[in-house]
Amino acid sequence: MELKGITREWDSLKKDAAARAASAAPYVKEGKIVDAKDAVALLEAVIKPGDKVNIEGNNQKQADFLAKTLCQVDPGKVHDLHMVQSVLTLPEHLDVFEKGIAKKLDMSFSGPQAGRIAEFLKEGKLELGAIHTYLELYGRYFVDLTPRVALIAATKADRHGNLFTGFSTEDTPAIVEATKFRQGIVIAQVNEIVDELPRVDIPGDWVDYVIQSPKPFYIEPLFTRDPALITDAQVLKGMMAIKGIYGEYGIKSLNHGIGFDTAAIELLLPTYGEELGLKGKICTNFILNPHPSMIPAIESGWVESIHCFGGELGMDEYVAARSDIFFVGPDGSMRSNRAFSQTAGHYAIDMFIGGTLQIDPYGNSSTATANRVAGFGGAPNMGCDPKGRRHSSEAWLKCGEEYGVKEAMWGPVHRGKRLVVQLAETFREKLAPGFVEELDAFALAKNANLPIEPVMIYGDDLTHIITEEGIAYLHKCRNMEERTAAIRGIAGFTEVGMKADPKETLRLRDLGVIKTADDLGIDMSRANRSMLAAKNVHDLVVWSKGLYNPPAKFRNW
Amino acid sequence: MELKGITREWDSLKKDAAARAASAAPYVKEGKIVDAKDAVALLEAVIKPGDKVNIEGNNQKQADFLAKTLCQVDPGKVHDLHMVQSVLTLPEHLDVFEKGIAKKLDMSFSGPQAGRIAEFLKEGKLELGAIHTYLELYGRYFVDLTPRVALIAATKADRHGNLFTGFSTEDTPAIVEATKFRQGIVIAQVNEIVDELPRVDIPGDWVDYVIQSPKPFYIEPLFTRDPALITDAQVLKGMMAIKGIYGEYGIKSLNHGIGFDTAAIELLLPTYGEELGLKGKICTNFILNPHPSMIPAIESGWVESIHCFGGELGMDEYVAARSDIFFVGPDGSMRSNRAFSQTAGHYAIDMFIGGTLQIDPYGNSSTATANRVAGFGGAPNMGCDPKGRRHSSEAWLKCGEEYGVKEAMWGPVHRGKRLVVQLAETFREKLAPGFVEELDAFALAKNANLPIEPVMIYGDDLTHIITEEGIAYLHKCRNMEERTAAIRGIAGFTEVGMKADPKETLRLRDLGVIKTADDLGIDMSRANRSMLAAKNVHDLVVWSKGLYNPPAKFRNW
Questions:
Q1: pLDDT at A276
Q2: Which residues of chain B does A339 touch, with a Cβ-Cβ cutoff of 8 Å?
Q3: Which of A369, A462, A534, B411 has its CB 3.0 to 4.6 Å from that of A362, i.e. a possible disulfide?
Q4: Which CATH class is domain A227-538?
Q5: Residue-range domain boundaries for chain B
Q6: What ipTM was reported for this prediction?
Q7: Which residues 127-156 of B have a C-beta within 8 angstroms of A?
Q8: Which Pfam families does the record match to this protein (chains A, B) (predicted)?
C-alpha cells in the first residue's frame, strides 16, 4: 500500500488555545475569576483577528457587559472578527462593525438593530453570511460556524467556573458545548460570584474565565402583553381559532408566537374554550416562554406541561411555584433551554400559531420590511412541516388527510401534516395592508443582496390563515390557483382581497376551504373584550395569587 | 373579576419524587452511591406502576446492567410501565414486556429486536405508541413523553453523582435534562467510581443515584466496515456519486449513513476524488460517527471537522490525537452528543447519503420489512428537506434551482433544497430486488396496525438515486409520472425497471434527469477495488499510524 497521508500538526487548535491562555494568565485571580477592570485586556489577550466570536444575545438574556467590553478593544489588535450569534439587540452588537473590530455576521434575529444592519450592508461595513432560525444556527455551531471565543452570560458562578443559568438558561448550553469542545475559549459574565451555587447548569470544566459584571445582565419582558390592549377584533379571531382550528383538529401540543392575537386566545381558554367543552381536549402541552397571559388557563387546570425557551421578567416566582407544569430543577428554580425547546417546537408539537405582517397570494408570509434585516428567530423552525416527523397524532393525521395535493406529491403513502397557522389583520395600524401582491421581502433581498427572499413561513407550509373575515384552510387547496383564491377570499379590502372572485369565494365556502365566523356558528355580538378571562395586568396578578410580579412599566394600578 | 381558578397542589411531582427518595434512602451509601447488589431494591423503591421509564440504549452505548436489573423487579410491584427510549437492542428491552413489567413503548430504532416487537404487538403483549426519529423523540421528552425515571449509562462517576460520558456521551444529556428538570429520578450505571473525573459531562445535581456495574457497559462496533468486503459495484456507484453529485453540486457539509456503499465513497476520496481535483471543494465538514473508513481521507487532509453522534470502538485514541478535526474536551477525550449532531444533521448540512433496501415507483424508500418493527433512527431527520432552513449554500441553491415543481409549489420565491441521496442495488443478496411496486412497509403497517406506513425517506424529499445503472436526478422531475419514469429508468431488471419505456428513459437522459456512468464520463474499466485508498482493516491501521485499534473480530492479519 502506498501511503499518501500528509504530515501536519493535528492539535494546532489546542496549542493555539494554550498560547492564548498563557497571554491571559496575568489577569486571572483566584480560580477562573478575572476582574471587570481587566476585561478589555482579557479579550485582547484571547481574541485574534479573524476569529469567529459569539456574544450571547438571545431573545432576552444579553451578555451586555462583554458586548460593551468588546467595543473597547483596540481595533489594531482585534479586527476582522466573524460574529456568529443568534440575536443582535444591543447597539454594541453593531458598534463592533462600525469600529472595524468585526467584519462578518451570521445571525438569527436582530430586532431593534435591523435597520442598522441594512445600512451597514449598503455601506460595506458588514458582510452578511446568512440569516438562520435559532436551531439551524446552533446546528452550524457544530459544523462550519463554531465560535473560537464565546462571550456568555450566567446568573451566578463559583470560582471554579461552574455556572448557574437557571430561569434564563436560553442558548448558553449550545454555545458553550460547541465552543469549548472544539478547543475554543469561553468567557462568562455573571451577576454574582458565590461559594456554592443553587445548582450547576454548566460544568466549570467547560468555562475558562468568569467576570462579575458591574450590573446584572440586561433582560427584556418580551413576552408580556397587557390584556387591556387586546381588541374586540382579536377576540373574534381568537374565538374563530379555538372553534375552527383548536377544537376542530383537537390540538393538544402547540406553540404560540409573541403578540396580542395569541394572548387573546390564551385568555379565551378559561371562558370560551370552557363553554365549548374543550378543556382536556386541547392545549394541554405547550412549548412557550412563560407568558403571563397563560396564567388564567394554567390556574383553571387546562395545562399539563410547558417547556420554555427562556424566562420572562416577573414570572420566576410563579413558575417556581408551579413545578407540576414547568421544568424546574432540584433547587426549585426553572431551567429553560432554547435548543431543546426549539427541537420540541419543530418535531413534537402539532401546531404553530402566530402573527405576521404580510401575506402574499401564494401564502408566503413575512415580517420583513424593505430596509430592515431582521430575521425570524424560531418562527420558521416551528412554522414549517417537519418532514422527518414519523409519529402520529389525531390533529396531524387529519391535516394530512385533508391535504389537497397529497396524491400528486405523496403517492399512495399515508402521511400527516403539521398545522401552521397565521393570524393576520387585513389592515393594521396606519392602514398598512396585511395582504400584498409582493412581499417587502423581495425588495429587501434586492436591497441587501440576499440570495433568497427572507420569507418567514413558506406558502406550502402554511395550512391556515385567520383574519376577521374568516379562516382559509389553505392545505385543502388542490393547486396554486385555488390557494390564491382562498387567500383573496379572506383578504378583505386589501389589493389582494379586491381581486377575489365572489363566485369562487362562495364555491370555496361550500367546499369548506373558507369558513366565516357565521359558517363556524360564532355569535359575532359576543366577540368582545368581556370574553377575556383577565382584562388587565392586575387581573393576571390576582389569578396568580400574587406570585406574578410584573415589571414596573406594566403596573398601572 | 370573577376568579375561577381551581384549588389543587402544584408540586405533586416534587412531593412524589421526595417520597420515592425516602423509600430508596436505605440503599444509599456514601454520597449518591448504591451497591450493585441493591439495584433491584432501588428500582422497586423508585419506580411506580404506570411510570414512563427510559433505559438508555442508543446506537452503541447501552445501560445494560440497569436493563437486566429492571427485568428482575417484582411485576407485582412494578408493572404497566411505559418505556420511552430511543433504541431497543438487548433482549432485556423486550423481556420487560414478556414479564408484564412494561406495557407501552415509544421508540426510534430496534435493530435485532424488531421481529420480537412485531410478535409482541400481535400477541397484545406490547402497545406501540409510535416510531420516531431520534431528535423527534428527544423533542417529545420535553412535551408529552417525559420519563419519570431514567436509567442511564456513563463511563465514570464521582460520589457526588457528577458523570463523565466522554467519547460515548450520545443521548445522555437529552434524557437527563428532560427527566431531572421535570422532577424525575435519574439512575446512572457507571464503569468506574473515582475520586476525580477527567471532566464533568453531566453535573451531579442532575443525577440521583450512581451504581458501579459489575461489567463495563455494552458497546457495539456499529460503524466499522472492512474495506476488504467492498465490491466493484460499490466502487462504481461511489465514483458516480463523487463525480455526478459531490463534485457536480460542490457538497461541503454532509452525513454518510452506515454501510459499505458510503464506506466505498470515503475510501475513494483520496484516490478518485484527488484525481478529479475536488480536495477542499467537497467533503470538508461531516456529521458522522468516527468511521474507521474515514481515516485515509482525514490523513490526506480532506476534512476540516467532524461532529459525532457517538463513538466507535477502537477509534478513541485516533480521535483524541486529531483534536483539530473532532470535538475534543479539555481533558483530551472526545465529547459526542447525539442531540446536537442530529440538529446539525437536519439543519446544517447540504446532503444526506445512505443506503436503503427498497424503493417504490414514487421514490419512497424504506428498510422496513413486513414482520419487523425496526424504525429508522436518525435517517428521516437527515434524509429530508428541512423546511425551516433559511441559510444558503451553493449546493442547496443549485438543487432548489433545478427543482421541477418549484413554480407550482413555491410561486415566485427563491428557495433551495437539501440533497437527499439513496444508494441502491437493483438486486441485493439472494436476489432481493431493490425496487418494488409496493414497499414492504405497507404490509408492515397492516400487520402491526400502524396509522402510517414506516417509510424511511419520502419520495418528495428524495433528490437522487444511484444504482449501478446510473443516477436519477429525481428533484428535476416536473410531476409524479416523470419521477416514476426516472426511477424505472435506473431500476434494471427489477419489476419496477422492467416497466421502463426505453424511449422515455432516453428522453430523460437527454434532459439530464438520468445519467449513466457513460454520460458522466466514467471509465467503467477502472471501477474496481484497486481504486480504494485502503483495501482492508490493516491498511486503515497503517493510515492511522497505529492510533486506530480495531476490535478483535476485525483483526484478521
A1: 98
A2: 339-340, 343
A3: B411
A4: alpha beta
A5: 17-212, 228-538
A6: 0.97
A7: 129-133, 135-136, 138-140, 142-144, 146
A8: Mal_decarbox_Al (PF16957)
